[in-house]
Amino acid sequence: MDHQALFDETIAADQRIEPRDWMPDAYRATLIRQIAQHAHSEIIGMQPEGNWILRAPSLRRKAILLAKVQDEAGHGMYLYAAAETLGIDREELTEKLIEGRQKYSSIFNYPTLSYADVGVIGWLVDGAAICNQVPLCRCSYGPYARAMIRICKEESFHQRQGYELLLAMVRGTDAQREMVQESTNRWWWPSLMMFGPPDGDSPNTQQSMEWGIKRHTNDELRQRFVDMTVPQAAALGVTLPDPDLRWNAERGRHDYSQPDWTEFKAVISGGGPCNAQRLAHRRRAHDNGAWVREAALAHAEKQARHTEAAA
Amino acid sequence: MSEFTAEGGHGAVPTTGVDTGRGTPRRSWPLYEVFVRGKRGLNHVHVGSLHAPDDEMALRNARDVYTRRNEGVSIWVVRAEHITASSPAEKDPFFAPSGDKVYRHPTFYVIPEDVPHL
Amino acid sequence: MSDNVYDSLAETHEDGQWAFGTGFEDVQEEITAPVPDGVDAADLAQYCLMLGDDALICAQRLSEWVANAPELEEEVALANTALDLLGQARVLLARAAHLGAGADEDALAFQRAEPEFRNVALAEIGDDLDFARAIARLLLFSTWRLALLERLVTSRDPVLAAVAGKGVKELAYHRDHAAHWAVRLGDGTDVSHTRMQAALDAVWPYVDELFRTSEVEARLPGVAVDPAETRGAVDAVLDQVLAAATLTRPSRPGAGTIGGRGGRQGVHTEALGHVLAEMQSLARQHPGATW
User: Fold this and answer.
1) What value does the mean pLDDT of chain A take?
2) CB contact under 8 A, B57 and C9
């Protein structure tokens, strides 16, 4: 049986492709792109959330936020590790991110302007991410699927923590309630945009779906997210800022308005509120750390030479 | 509008025009594979990989990242380049060498730059 | 498909989804233990604030490294360290509150002004996001705190003993992490050696304060640890690390007190005001709010 047939058979049987298996170059390139950009998103995502660690208004919240952001670093690491099984170096991926040749999720180009954003990001952004990520646990590429299983467990906890913060706030002072509503008004539309443009504008979906990398279309995921979120908003007493959002009994789903796709275009082309800042921050951290990474390598090499000499 | 999908974690990343790299080795911290045996486990299981400049840090990082600093969990870290892997015979009869590297794509191993076609 | 290797690792944690869990249950239980016989509650509260503020302010400084660390693995390690210290701070502050120092851990953390904080200067000084300075501080702080906690495990106060019992494992980890980094940087490249030596020189003035016995500590024998007793052990470790790191022990004079008063008496460096301004700003904007 030839390579391609074996590969096709594995995919058709919903089995895993592993790092030692033959795979089409395009499959490999698609995976590198997808996994790397996912990893970059986790790392960049540490910035907007980390923005509130130093000012967290209670010690318990500070601890939770620190742990969450630390989880995100860990997620980035699992994902870079999965990408590396495809023959690319993490350092090279980091360079491509910093040079703008690989991207990260556009949602992180928005600023976190109030503490309520911490909760709303947990609720909406992580909620949307879960819609995306759970299907990936069945991705055809083994290392990615296994990383996703672990990430999904941790991400669902993050979403609950975010929601719990919002519950505490809406049951608190008027100022806290207003903060939650104002934050929701800012994050709702960008959260919908996380699923990418409508299916009609996304012709490349097909190949990824055939390869078992992508399991659902953009619109399917977006619809699922809306249906899931509406009752959660109701429980918070928060209004989602879409006047045309309503239950459609015939479809058995909610009807909702499309976000402003021109804003989306602008943000993904570098014209969002925080694009320059996010990348500059990542670049600065990476550049400032070069002497440290170099020193660690130099020391290890010295140690290795000592060991050899002693042997 | 060019390709943007919901793929990956937080979505809305481009699927076209994205550089996926040449896979040239960098002078970076070497890659280690991590194997863990949980308290109730019978044997070590491969859980992923990480980068570290030396064995000591590799163990520490593995504890932090892969075991949640659980006590009583046994960790093995091995330099990826030191692992020799077999190819699953029934899957890949075309793979002649019986002992090979753990990853198919030979990026992590230092290849002299003047060797052509590598 | 059952690739669930992680199930066997996620054992008895209810918050088992946290990759790096310390539990976030509220810290009521042990802290309500009665004051040991013959011990003044106010003194004990002050001592808890000393150790608690050390941990809280150091954790705050470490948290500045989030999204700024030199490598991803180090992001995780530093955040882990900050979380450990924050956890210790929460128990100690809760104990102090129970003993009458304030309403609860958050009231103490967010509503006190600088003169009421009891931490040493080493915890509060900034590092300008220089990794060598961060490691130099962490090396000194964790070596010293470990020596303190190792002696605190036999405290007559059950809460202090419990904090120490759990804390020694954490501090041993922090100290070893910092020590290994000090060696890598000290004995790495010429650039790293220069930077690490400079960093050590910069934090050295804050070492003397660590071993000055305060009046409160002097009034709590068998309960508090006299920090002067830790000097020998700390010096022994530092000598070992500095030698391996090819670093020279600095000979700078200690930062002085003002009328004999320093951090333990609420007289701090200029840095603490800025740390608290940032840390407390949001909580103070919303008096009476729960989060």
Assistant:
1) 92
2) no
Taking an 8 Å cut-off on Cβ atoms, the answer to whether A292 and C83 are in contact is: no
CA distance C63 to C52: 16
Domain boundaries, chain C: 40-285
The mean pLDDT value for A276-301 works out to 96
Cα separation, A97 vs A47, whole angstroms:
15
Q: What angle do CA A190, A220, A201 make, to 5 degrees?
A: 70
CA dist C67 and C129 (Å) reads: 11
Tell me the mean pLDDT in the region A121-142. Answer: 89
Domain C40-285: assigned CATH number: 1.20.1260.10
CA-closest candidate to residue B2, choices A132, A272, A270, A204: A204
Q: Which residues of C197-213 are buried (b: 16+ CB within 10 A; e: fewer)?
A: bebbebbbbbbbbbbbe
Which chain B residues contact residue C10 at CB under 8 A? 68
Distance from the first to the final alpha carbon of chain B: 37
Task: Write out chain B residues lying below 8 Å of C76, CB-based.
Answer: 61, 64-65
Average pLDDT score over residue span C31-38: 92
R_g of chain B computed on alpha carbons:
18
Cβ-based burial of C8 (10 A; exposed 0-12, middle 13-18, buried ≥19) = middle
d(CA C113, CA C118): 11
Q: What share of chain A is helix, strand, coil (3-state, %, to 5)?
A: 70, 5, 25
Chain C hits for A304, Cβ within 8 Å = none
Closest to C247 in 3D by CA, of C136, C125, C99, C142? C136
What pairs with residue B85 in β-bridges? Answer: B100
SS3 C219: coil
Tell whether the model's pLDDT for residue C16 goes beyond 90.
Answer: no
Collapse the DSSP code of B3 into the 3-class scheme (helix H, G, I; strand E, B; otherwise coil) and give the result. Answer: coil
CB C104 within 8 A of CB C44: no
**Dihedral pair phi/psi, residue A17, rounded to 5°:** -90, 130
Distance from CA of B50 to the nearest CA of C (A): 8
The single-letter code of the amino acid at A305 is R
Q: Between chains, do C21 and B68 touch, taking CB under 8 Å as contact?
A: yes
Give the best residue of B29, B51, B69, B77 to mutate against chain C (max C CB count within 10 A).
Answer: B69
**Cα distances (Å, whole numbers) of residue C179 to B36, C10, C171, C238:** 26, 30, 12, 9
Q: What is the pLDDT of residue C240?
A: 98
Instruction: Answer yes or no: are the C-beta atoms of B102 and A21 closer than 8 Å.
Output: no
Report pLDDT for B104. Answer: 65
ipTM of this complex: 0.94
DSSP bridge partners of B48: B34
pLDDT over 70 at A229, yes or no: yes
Q: CA B2, CA A267: separation in Å to the nearest integer?
A: 14
Residue owning tokens 């060498």: B97
